[in-house]
Every structure is written in C-alpha cells, then in structure tokens.
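Deliverable D4.2, example record:
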Amino acid sequence: MSALPPSFLDAVQHNCDVSDSRHADHYFLCVYLMHMREYFRWERQLGPDVVRGADAGGEWVHKRESYWDTLEGASQILGAYRRGAAGSGVTLSAEMLDRLKF
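Output generated by the structure prediction step:
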C-alpha cells in the first residue's frame, strides 16, 4: 500500500476526533475509563507492560475532553477523499478503502 498524504491522515484524525466527541458519553463510567486508558496507550504507543502514573492519564483525559468540547457541531471531512473529489488531492483505490475498512 502506498503512503497516504498527510492531508488525508489529518482528515482521518479529525473525523475520529469528531466521532469520539459525539459518542464518548454513551459508555458507562467504568467502560469509558477503560477505553480512555487504551486510547492513551495507543496514542503514545505504550505497550501493556509500561507503568504510567494516574496523574498523566488524568491530565490527558481532561485535555481530550476539553478538546472534544471544541468540536461540538463539527462536521466530518473525509467524504471528499473517499470519493476522490476534485481538489481533494487523493483518489483512493478499492484496495486502500478495503484496508481502511470504510
């Protein structure tokens, strides 16, 4: 698979952030915290054996939730990329779309 352009990756990250901001409150607290713990580890590329302090995780969750608050009403932007619309700079092959699981 060829490298994807940074603008495309930024669009995907934006869409993930918008989705997270809309749906994070659908979990019970315990499940939410477990998801956030894994999200924290994934974002920092930490393995399961890495011990982290509660303060770092708590501060990260607070910043993440504050960022999500700024996304209220935001739109997702991937549609133009998915269709290879004029000006998007990207035309995705069927194989790339399949790998991205859209």
